[in-house]
């Protein structure tokens, strides 16, 4: 059996509407996911037992120190899930090359899980009569994490429920982004818990989130300025409370000409929308010179989800 390599994108959340805390510890969301051109790559190769190696992708300065190489790695859990479903033994070596910031709010672990699901299905399933259809992979993905189904789907999509129920959005054209990474990640459960704490201290109820018509219209029109005005993230106050320095990063991006600025998902990566590719390159340079971020990265979206290469 030949090795199978899968390329999988990071995400930024264009709208992250967070509802009240549910009894199961999750929140109902209106989560507009957007896949961007920062990619991890996962290669699956037959081996005598499940093994994981993690390295920075060539040319990437991503800090891989905190990424587990045992069963704590979401890609390992994905491989075990596919093996279980196909009645196979999880005898696979997974080599993960990371360019997506770790614990950065860009769903890097979820991306690797999605890539591992696809790679292992390709390795072990019968191509003539596949036991795992794309919908089955989406369902397995939802068991691994709320962001995993979107990493399989890619593009731009609205996630409801925990974020795992996806509807593709209509998008025209390409949007150009700058991402400012931070040293040290933020824990997703801690950011949701801080969001609940801030809301409880404020008092009053928490409304169910609603999809932004202005955002969906901006996407359909390919209008970067209108999209910038419609970007929202209900987790941003919590991320800023836990990491106050992010306020200065967002302000610097706006001062240096970003059309729009927000924290990506649970943070601490900050995302800036530019008018075009040249604008993004210029903004990244200016942010580098300002020295407010650990690293700046440029990317465009939407891009496809997990893809065998
Ligand atoms: C912040 C986002 O990245 C935005 O896309 C996601 O909502 C988080 O997705 P994820 O990292 O795949 O999260 P999961 O692994 O499913 O859940 C981790 C933890 O995040 C919190 N969580 C996650 C999703 C959700 N809809 N409500 C939550 O409250 C819960 O505390 C949960 O225990
Ligand atoms: N393949 C993986 N890559 C990165 N982190 C992983 C992986 N598998 C497990 N983890 C663990 O998950 C934690 C969160 O990492 P991840 O990069 O997925 O965060 P994130 O991008 O903030 O996630 P999200 O945006 O989905 O909330 C890491 O600190 C690490 O302990």
Brief characterization of the structure:
35% of the residues lie in helices and 28% in strands.
Overall pLDDT score: 97
Cofactors and ligands: 4-diphosphocytidyl-2-C-methyl-D-erythritol, adenosine-5'-triphosphate
Please tell me the total number of domains: 2
CATH architecture level-2 label of the largest domain: 2-Layer Sandwich
Q: Low-confidence runs (pLDDT<50, min 5 residues)?
A: none
Computed CA radius of gyration, to the nearest angstrom? 19 Å
Q: Tell me what portion of residues adopts beta-strand conformation.
A: 25-35%
What is the CATH C-level name of the largest domain?
Alpha Beta
Coarse shape? globular
Annotated CATH topology of the largest domain: Ribosomal Protein S5, domain 2
Biggest sheet, open or closed, and with what strands and sense? 8 strands, mixed
Number of DSSP helices?
10
Number of strands: 12
**SSE string, helix = H, strand = E?**
EEEHEHHHEEEHHHEHHEEHEE
Structural class: alpha+beta
Helix amount, in percent?
A: 25-40%
Q: N- to C-terminal separation?
A: 16 Å
Active site: 11, 147
InterPro entries: GHMP_kinase_C_dom, GHMP_kinase_C_sf, GHMP_kinase_N_dom, IspE, Ribosomal_Su5_D2-typ_SF, Ribsml_uS5_D2-typ_fold_subgr
Binding site for ATP: 101-111
Pfam families: GHMP_kinases_C, GHMP_kinases_N
């Amino acid at each position: 059996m030949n090795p199978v390599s899968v390329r999988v994108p990071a995400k930024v959340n264009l709208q992250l509407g967070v509802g009240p805390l549910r009894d199961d510890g999750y929140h109902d969301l209106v989560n507009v996911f957007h896949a961007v051109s920062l990619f991890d790559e996962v290669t699956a190769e037959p081996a005598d037992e499940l093994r994981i190696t993690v390295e920075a992708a060539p040319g990437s300065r991503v800090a891989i120190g905190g990424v587990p190489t045992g069963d704590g790695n979401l890609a390992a859990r994905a491989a075990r899930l596919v093996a279980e479903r196909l009645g196979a033994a999880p005898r696979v070596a997974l080599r993960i090359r990371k360019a997506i910031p770790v614990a950065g709010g860009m769903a890097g672990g979820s991306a690797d899980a999605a890539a591992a699901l696809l790679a292992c299905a390709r390795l072990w399933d019968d191509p003539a009569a596949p036991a795992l259809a794309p919908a089955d992979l989406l369902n397995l993905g939802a068991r691994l994490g709320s962001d995993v189904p979107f990493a399989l789907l890619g593009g731009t999509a609205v996630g409801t429920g925990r974020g795992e129920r996806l509807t593709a959005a209509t998008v025209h054209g390409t949007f150009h982004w700058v991402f400012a990474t931070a040293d040290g990640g933020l824990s997703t459960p801690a950011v949701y818990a801080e969001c609940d704490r801030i809301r409880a201290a404020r008092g009053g109820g928490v409304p169910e989130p609603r999809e932004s018509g202005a955002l969906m219209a901006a996407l359909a029109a390919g209008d970067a300025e209108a999209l910038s005005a419609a970007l929202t993230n209900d987790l941003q106050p919590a991320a800023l409370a836990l990491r106050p320095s992010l306020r200065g990063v967002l302000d610097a991006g706006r001062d240096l000409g970003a059309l729009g600025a927000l924290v990506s998902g649970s943070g601490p990566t900050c995302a800036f929308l530019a008018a075009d590719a040249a604008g993004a390159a210029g903004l990244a340079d200016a942010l580098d010179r300002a020295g407010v971020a650990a690293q700046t990265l440029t990317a465009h979206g939407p891009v496809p989800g997990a893809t065998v290469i």
